[in-house]
Amino acid sequence: AAPAVPQADQDPAAVVFGLGYGPVHESLPFAAAVLAAVRERGASAPVPIPVPAPRRDPADIAERIRHLGELHQQGLVTDEEFTSKKAELLAEL
């Protein structure tokens, strides 16, 4: 059986204009610009959609750093491992 085709307003690959997303007179010029850009680029070159990494809860990161510190104090994690992993976790904030 063929996969179900999602409704346009639920399809992440679709762009819907003027259907409850603002006044039509504002969305139509934008729709025309998008269409022109798609036609100029050509259908053979898909546009990659960047997916942002989910933001981590700062409290969760703080807890993981505390736990890492405990492992470091117990001698289960080296200074280098502690510093490296802590920097990785802080970069997620």
How would you portray this structure in words?
It contains three helices and no strands. It is mainly α. The chain has two domains: 1-50, no CATH class; 58-91, no CATH class.
> What is the overall pLDDT average?
78
Task: Please compute the radius of gyration using only Cα atoms.
Answer: 24 Å
Biggest sheet descriptor:
none
Low-confidence stretches: none
Number of helices: 3
Percentage of residues assigned to helices = 40-55%
Q: For this entry, what is the oligomeric state of its chains?
A: single chain
Strand content: under 5%
Judged by helices, strands and strand pairing, the structural class is: mainly alpha
Q: Kindly give the count of domains.
A: 2
In N-to-C order, the SSE pattern is HHH
Distance between the termini: 44 Å
Number of strands: 0
Shape type: elongated
List the helices and strands and how they pair.
Elements: H1 24-41, H2 58-73, H3 79-91
Helix pairs in contact: 2-3
Summarize the structure.
The protein is mostly helical and 93 residues long.
Q: What would the keywords be for this entry?
A:
mainly alpha; 2 domains
